[in-house]
Structure formats: structure tokens, C-alpha cells
Design brief:
InterPro entries: ExbB/TolQ_transport, MotA_ExbB_proton_chnl. The chain is mostly helical. It has one domain. 84% of the residues lie in helices and 0% in strands.
């Protein structure tokens, strides 16, 4: 008797379970592309622009990071060798050593060595100018990255405004027959552009500050090596 009762419960409950499964299976899922395309031409243009900016930002971050990391590598014995060559009067050997090294420090020291025999003020100026040129090369595209970090959120917000305008336009066109699903789809589209813009902006902002911090380290190293080089030039006169 008990088994028959349980069997009846299971059989009776089967349609209800099927209805629940059908409801779950009919739940609407939207991909990012569907959200973008539902926003019309304006939403698609905004998302394409943000995609281009994201690719550009990632490229700049990776490319500048590798370049700055390479420039920050320093041979511990480089300045000691330069000092020995200069004190021994082997200027050509010192210049050859600098040319064999592609770091910014080596290039500015090479410029200073080529000015040996002139007043120290002239040598110091030449070294500083070379350092500025090398830093300018390392800072390539950093301003673009900073622009992306600020512009991407604003572009995303522009997409949000466009999406909301479309929502209100649909409301006005529908009159009293407002479709909640139609409105929610437009709002989804508007929010997606904001999220995309914020993500691109945050990545660009973090990358920019990371690169700036590494640049400051290189500036400190170059200033220290400039002072060390000028001190070397003072030694023979002591």
C-alpha cells in the first residue's frame, strides 16, 4: 500500500516537475553581442571603439613594460670598468664599452666621455640632454595610455546615454502600451557600454601607473650614474 501511494505521488508530480523544467529552459540568456546589437548602430559603434581602445591599451602596456624592463637592467661592473678606463686614460676602451651596451645609462655616459677635455659644466649638460632624450624614448605612448584611461569610461557613459535615449524613444513611440521586456533590453545595452568603458579605463589606468613607477626608478638610476660619472672626472685632478 505504501509503495503504491508513493508511486501515485511520483506520477502525479511529474507534470509539475516538467513544467518547472520547461520554465527554467525557457529563461532568456543574452550574450554580450546580443546586448550590443540590440542597442542599434550607436551601441555597436561604442563597443567597437572600446574594443579598439582595449587592444591598443594592452599593446602599449606590454610593449612599454618590456622596453622599460630591458632599459632598467644594469651591469653591476659597468661603472667600475668605466672608472678604470678613464683613470688609466683608455678613453677609446671606455667608449667601446658604452657602445656595446644599449642601456640609457651607457648612452649618456658615452656622450659624456666624448666631451672629456671640455669644462665639466659642458659635460654635465651633454649628459643631462642625452638622458632627457633617452627618457623621452622610454615614455613613448604613455600619454596615449593615459588618454585611454580617461576617455574609455566617458565613451562607455556616452553609450549609456544613447541607450537610455533609445529607451525613452521606444516609450514615447509605444504610447500607453509599454513593453517591460523591450525597455529592459535597452537598459541592459546601456549598462553594458558603461561596464566595458570602466573595464578598459581601469586596465589602462593601472598599466599607466605601473609604467610610471618603473620610469621613476630608471630616472633615479640615471641621476645616480650621472653624479658618479662626474665624480670620476674630478678624481684625476685630486
Amino acid at each position: 500500500m505504501l509503495s503504491n501511494f508513493l508511486l501515485q505521488i511520483n506520477v502525479a508530480g511529474t507534470p509539475a516537475l516538467n513544467e518547472v523544467e520547461n520554465v527554467v529552459s525557457e529563461e532568456k540568456t543574452l550574450t554580450i553581442w546580443q546586448l550590443v546589437s540590440s542597442g542599434g548602430v550607436g551601441g555597436a559603434i561604442i563597443m567597437i571603439a572600446l574594443l579598439i581602445l582595449s587592444i591598443l591599451a594592452v599593446y602599449i602596456i606590454v610593449e612599454r613594460y618590456l622596453s622599460i624592463k630591458k632599459a632598467s637592467k644594469e651591469d653591476a661592473n659597468f661603472m667600475n670598468q668605466i672608472k678604470d678606463f678613464i683613470l688609466d686614460g683608455k678613453i677609446d676602451a671606455a667608449q667601446s664599452l658604452c657602445k656595446s651596451n644599449s642601456s640609457p645609462v651607457a648612452k649618456m655616459i658615452e656622450k659624456g666621455i666624448s666631451r672629456i677635455g671640455k669644462p665639466l659644466s659642458d659635460i654635465g649638460t651633454a649628459v643631462e640632454n642625452t638622458a632627457k632624450l633617452e627618457l623621452n624614448k622610454l615614455e613613448k605612448n604613455l600619454s596615449t595610455l593615459a588618454t585611454i584611461s580617461g576617455a574609455a569610461p566617458m565613451i562607455g557613459f556616452l553609450g549609456t546615454v544613447i541607450g537610455m535615449i533609445m529607451v525613452f524613444h521606444k516609450m514615447a513611440s509605444a504610447g500607453g502600451n509599454i513593453d517591460v521586456e523591450m525597455l529592459s533590453e535597452g537598459i541592459y545595452t546601456a549598462m553594458v557600454t558603461t561596464v566595458a568603458g570602466l573595464i578598459v579605463g581601469i586596465v589602462a589606468y593601472i598599466g599607466y601607473n605601473l609604467l610610471v613607477a618603473k620610469m621613476e626608478k630608471i630616472v633615479f638610476i640615471m641621476e645616480a650614474r650621472t653624479t658618479e660619472f662626474l665624480d670620476i672626472l674630478h678624481e684625476p685632478a685630486v
